[in-house]
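Agenda item 2: zinc ion complex prediction
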Amino acid sequence: MTRFQIDGERMLADLGKLRTFGACGNGVKRRAFTDADIASRKWLATRMTEAGLTVHIDPVGNVFGMPGEATNCILVGSHSDTQPEGGWLDGALGVIVGLEVARAAREAGGPPIACVSFQDEEGRFSTLTGSRVWTGALSLEDADQLVDADGACFAQERQKAAQIGPVANVPPEWFRAFLELHIEQGPVLDTTGERIGVVSDIVGIAGERMSFIGEQNHAGTTPMRLRKDAFQALVRFTDALNTKLRTIVGPATVWTIGHVVVHPNAASVVPGRVDFSVQWRDPSDRLLQDMRTVIHQTAKETADTNGIEWQHSNYNAIPATRCDPTIVSVLERAARTAAPNAWRPMTSGALHDAANVSKLMPMGMLFVPSINGISHNFDEDTAIADLVLGAQTFAQAVNLLVN
Ligand SMILES: [Zn+2]
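Presented output:
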């Protein structure tokens, strides 16, 4: 049964308005707690009030819109802060569709739906800061120790939450489930021409810092056969790793050597040391462990054959997250009806607030296509028809869930 229906035009108008806060070309600059972010959160709070929702601001600036008496409602939303150079839809789409779903449900006389914009999902201070504090994964005391790349303190910056409205805790017990609509931020749907992705799980992320230590020497006088070149070792390691990992990985596995520091990084010196990051992602925590074994073996073999030393730091991992099976089946039902033969179940390769919230309540996510798979970029975009279809499918899933 459909108890409420969203207004696509009104949703697009609000999405267009949110885009004006921090607008920069086709994209936006709306980092957490900047003037543009605070102004956008004030505007969002006003729109919630106009929709008959009660606004609650928590101590880290997460903005909630509650439908009257706050018990046992479904929470929908995402984040409205952006990367330093962000797209107009990353997070914003889920926040505005969340507002529209809560508003439409309220106009229809129920069911009670609450909406949220989490703060600092994009990691000005740390990964998913707002939802981590709200779900208790990060204590407020620990969060208050965080400092951004320019030396600004979280403890000080979060005081700006009071500019949006009175600040108080928002107990997670008020909610019984969380749903998030998001752009895919990757090329899968755009490539297949499909219009909806139902997220089955969110990848786990593992990572380490490693170093090869060889021998720094003169680039003119040291014969090739006597060199202990740390950079050449890294190249051989990367090559060997690509070959070996391909034999054990799944369809969603990715691995990246993303940060490399060569020492002394000079044209006439054989590199004596190279420090680098290795990060790998997959929805299976077991495979993440197996990959770790292969990465270690390969690094050790490379060091031995090249007569150099290998070091590595502590292993870090964020476990993979499974979406709630009941919510997944409801999202699939809605997707089958809205986009027959044009939807797919898929893994999210990006982290989302939903991963944190899933520790406290059943969670589900829906994706819409990203044109050319581009995100975290001013050029990020999605076809208007896909935004509306995604919003309608999402709203229909909420309808199915409350029936
Ligand atoms: Zn996002």
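Discussion summary: The chain is about 35% helix and 25% strand.
Owner for follow-up: CH.
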